[in-house]
Amino acid sequence: MTESDPDFDAPVRSGRSSDTLILQLGSWEGPLDLLLTLARSQKVDLSQISILALVDQYLDFIRDARALSLELAADYLVMAAWLAYLKSLLLLPKDPEAEPDPAELALKLQFQLQRLEAMRAAGQTLLARPQLGWDMFRRPNPEGLATDRRAVYAVDYYELLSAYGAIQARRATAIHVVRRRPVMALDEAIERLELLLGRSIDWTELARFLPADLADEAYARSVLASSFVAALELARQGKAVLSQGAAFGPILVKARAHG
Amino acid sequence: MADAYDLALTRALEAILFAAETPMTLAEIARHVGERGDLLPTLRALAESYAPRGINLVERGGRWQFQTAPDLGHHLRTSRETVKKLSRAAVETLAVIAYHEPVTRPEIEEIRGVAVSGGTIDVLMAAGWVRPAGRRETPGRPLQYATTPEFLAHFNLASRRDLPGIADLKAAGLLDREPSRELPLPLGGGEA
Amino acid sequence: MADAYDLALTRALEAILFAAETPMTLAEIARHVGERGDLLPTLRALAESYAPRGINLVERGGRWQFQTAPDLGHHLRTSRETVKKLSRAAVETLAVIAYHEPVTRPEIEEIRGVAVSGGTIDVLMAAGWVRPAGRRETPGRPLQYATTPEFLAHFNLASRRDLPGIADLKAAGLLDREPSRELPLPLGGGEA
Predict the structure, then answer these.
(1) CA proximity to C55, closest of B50, B6, B39
(2) What is the distance between the alpha carbons of residues A3 and A6, in angstroms, rounded to a whole number?
(3) What global pTM score does this model have?
(4) Cα–Cα dist B28/B65, whole Å
(5) Edge-to-edge, what's the strand order for the sheet holding B24-25?
(6) Would you tell me how many other CB atoms lie within 10 Å of the CB of residue C73?
(7) Which residue in A135, A143, A147, A148 has the most chain C C-beta atoms within 10 A of its own C-beta, making it the best mutation to test that interface?
(8) Fewest CB atoms within 10 Å of the CB: A18, A54, A215, C163?
(9) How many Å lie between the alpha carbon of C160 and the closest alpha carbon of chain A?
(10) Given CB atoms, is C95 within the 8 Å cutoff of chain B?
(11) C15 closest CB neighbour out of B19, B69, B78
């Protein structure tokens, strides 16, 4: 190997241009990237490229790749199909009613290529700029700025006074007055029921032993509850017998005959 | 100092010393700038040019470094105030101390009807409103607490006499319930 | 700048920015110097006085910091420093975000013509250059991305307006979502 021969290491298979492309198959980042590379090979400003020529370039590339049985990702084929469709639209006589407008589609493709090219160039320009940690440096161990946090307590005069008021109120002796409530005590109910029941041995509905004029509803409920418990108590003591035909049916009561 | 060579050297020295992790000896500095002859005069001139600034270039034990001017330390610390709400227990304790001072902790507990944690009184002292006020000359010599002038200032009171009495509190509706007849008014007589 | 008041303020600003651990916003600086009126003119004058020096005072994305002059890196690099090797995808994605921000991931993918792997944006976020910037109020509420002040500081840009060629790209309609009706202007020479 001599250094004077720069072509010594050049690839042997440089005969076909499509080969060169295919050898680089893995280096494209998707169909748009491939399209951009092909567009650049037209060696004109991207705003002046021939979309039809570009479409042909792409379709040729895909055909060659398939001829060589190279695996192509689906998105390359989708792009190929879309470009073939675009080409057919562009070649047809111009139809003002056509939807979508092929010229607009071509313009959009051109826009995307220009935009990708611009962003690619912008990325490289950014990387070429002075960078922190390589060109510029900050102080490695700054002392830092300290912030002492000081608590300021908020309490207003009203809070202070009402707190003291609350303490005094707590200290005040509380007198609890229990309001008298209309109830029939259990003892009273037992005594009353026992008396009314007498020595009757006929079944009588418990409700019939209750006072008839119970205007106060609270008192009526109390009387009912007390009388029921009184009936249970008398049954327990063996002085009465209870019977109920069905759930929620009337409760019958009679005195128990003493043997 | 005026010629281009010295300017370039001076700039390099500034950058090197600014970006240095630790103070640097002359030899270390020289390694960074390359062979440039005697650095010392340029370093000294640089130090002089920084002398009136907020950043100074100083030599300590043969090592050079930038540091902030010694008189500006107070700018490097700031205090930020955070407003905190005083707990209910603390407000009540403060009120009891204000109305009954000097007062011992057992007395505060008796008046409030609940135990008072040491932390509660600590908070009031940290706020600058309560201070220890000697010991009560009774068995156990318990510590007494009283309010501070800051307390009066915070509540805009000329003196503790300005605190409203129980009757005033009641008139203002600050007592939810009627205190019992037997309760002695805390602000009785000359003490308050 | 010549009177005593400004000198004191200038010195304080120097010391504070020198000691600061991170670039400081005006509000943060103001908290350390106290109420002193408008700091901006003094900061700018200070920055100007440092401009020819080896240490520069710069504003990057609204934050002020001292750093070494960008032309002196060769004096300061040690074996520790390595330039972050960014993948081509990462560089391109960074450019797309910087020039189009706030931008959603589907938009990045549309511009680049390929799916953007989560790892790519991750790398940029780990470097501190890119941050999530709220959600776009469109169906699906996609997350948007934008650059950080640290991105500007890293690439020595005072603000996004200083992104190379951004004005030309904007004028050419290349930062729009859709091509304009008129044929886009050709990209200008080597800059873009």
Answers:
(1) B50
(2) 7
(3) 0.64
(4) 12
(5) B24-25, B63-68, B55-60
(6) 20
(7) A135
(8) A215
(9) 12
(10) no
(11) B69
Number of neighbours of residue C146 by Cβ within 10 angstroms: 17
Enumerate helices (H) and strands (E) in chain B, giving the number of each.
9, 7
Question: Does residue A186 carry a pLDDT above 50?
Answer: yes
| SS3 (DSSP) at A202 | coil
Interface of A with B (CB under 8 A): 137-141, 143, 145-155, 157, 159-174
The amino acid at A13: R
- Judging contacts by C-beta atoms under 8 Å, the chain B residues touching residue A136 are none
For every residue of A68-119, DSSP letters joined together read TT----HHHHHHHHHHHHHHHHHHSPP-TT-SS-HHHHHHHHHHHHHHHHHH
Nearest CA in chain B to C77: B32
- Contact flag C16-B80 (C-beta cutoff 8 Å): no
- Choose among A46, A116, A143: nearest Cβ to C113: A116
pLDDT digits (tens, 9 = 90+) for A207-228: 888 877 777 788 888 888 888 8
Q: How close is the nearest chain C Cα to the Cα of B148, in Å?
A: 29
Q: What is the pLDDT of residues C108-155, one digit of tens each?
A: 999 998 888 878 899 999 989 999 998 988 888 999 999 999 999 999
Distance CA C99, CA C76 (A): 31
Centre a 10 Å sphere on the Cβ of residue B186 and count the other Cβ atoms it contains: 17
Helices A31-40 and A102-127 cross at an angle (nearest 10°) of: 90
Number of H helices, E strands in chain C: 9, 6
Distance CA A233, CA A240 (A): 9
Instruction: Starting at the earlier edge strand, list the strands of the sheet with C143-147.
Output: C103-104, C143-147, C130-135
A123 CB neighbours in chain C (<8 A) are 91-92, 94-95
Question: Which member of C11, C16, C33 has the closest CB to residue B53?
Answer: C11
3-state secondary structure B77-98: EEEEEEEEECCHHHHHHHHHHH
ipTM of the complex: 0.69
